[in-house]
Amino acid sequence: MQEARFWETAPNGRVLCTLCPRQCRLSDGQAGFCAVRVNRGGRLLALAHGTSTGFAADPVEKKPLYHFHPGSRVLSFGTVGCNLACRFCQNWHLSTAAPALGPGLPLLCAEEVVGLAVEAGCDGVAFTYNDPVIWAEWAIDVAREAHRRGLRTVFVTAGYVSERAREEIFPHMDAANIDLKSFSDGFYRKVSRGRLAPVLDTLRWLSGTSVWTEVTNLLIPGLNDGPEETRALAGWLGEHMGPDVPLHLSAFHPAHDMLDVPATPAATLLRARAVAREAGLRHVYTGNIRDSDGQTTRCGGCGAPLIERASFDLRAVRLRSGACPGCGTPLAGRF
């Protein structure tokens, strides 16, 4: 088994996992909250290293990333476990699965994963499905090989990671989508069994790096869909990440432990988009609903449509050297 990074020895044969804000102290044989990092004889092992629960060649827009090489494709894959416990998790069958549930998963090396991406005609590799923070060592290995082969790397995460770990993970990533569950610490504690502050720390830190970052906020009826919260969330993003950071407002569909909560009405997303734009964000998108305007990228200067989409498919791209062909205003992103 692969020895983990991000840990220290602790008294009485324990180990301290320093990967995420939980800082799990583990006795011999004990696994952390994420279920994939375990103390074996005083060493922390990464159980998910070299595994995958499946691969898919996706448009990068599906991650979602709208300002990162539009129309390119990435090979998506993930493992099992999570360091949050969201009651609404769309991928709960992976995030709640213990490593013991998948003993038949084939072991892979980084060269094999990147080889699959090349064979599929992908431009990059995306670490996704379950949170790649908890299998950071494996993601870093694959990212290094991807860069060696000229491919890009995408990290899709909730951003629940320690300062030390993020400083070692993100230098290997070209883009990230951060799933900001809510702008309420109470929501994080009650619904996701986490805290808000570490996620905001990650976003603030990323804003000072070369990693292209977009943010997703899933709106759940009655829990985090109020206009006051959307306004506060958008205001914080504008202040700390700038008005050009793309925000994806996504519709909730009943899943996992929230089957009794109704799906998010389209009207809620349209209202939230208007609120976020009024708060100063230039690029606010809607997801999981039919909304052509909410999927269109417009120039921050003259408002002309620059990138038009239908779901995850590109319909038109009107850029000249990464800028509006009409007024010349650069579009924030990587093109």
Would you write up a description of this structure?
The chain is of the alpha/beta class. The protein has helices spanning 92-95, 110-119, 136-148, 163-169, 185-192, 197-206, 227-241, 266-278; strands at 2-3, 7-9, 15-17, 25-26, 37-40, 43-46, 55-59, 73-77, 124-127, 152-157, 175-179, 212-219, 247-251, 284-287, 297-298, 305-310, 313-317. The strands form four sheets. The protein has an eight-stranded mixed β-sheet. A three-stranded antiparallel β-sheet has the order 1-6-5, with no helix packed on it. Helix 2 crosses helix 3. It is globular, with a radius of gyration of 20 Å.
List keywords for this structure.
single chain; alpha/beta; 3-stranded antiparallel β-sheet; 8 helices; 17 strands
Give a topology summary.
Elements: E1 2-3, E2 7-9, E3 15-17, E4 25-26, E5 37-40, E6 43-46, E7 55-59, E8 73-77, H1 92-95, H2 110-119, E9 124-127, H3 136-148, E10 152-157, H4 163-169, E11 175-179, H5 185-192, H6 197-206, E12 212-219, H7 227-241, E13 247-251, H8 266-278, E14 284-287, E15 297-298, E16 305-310, E17 313-317
Parallel strand pairs: 8-9, 9-10, 10-11, 11-12, 12-13, 13-14
Antiparallel strand pairs: 1-6, 2-3, 3-4, 5-6, 7-8, 15-16, 16-17
Helix pairs in contact: 2-3, 7-8
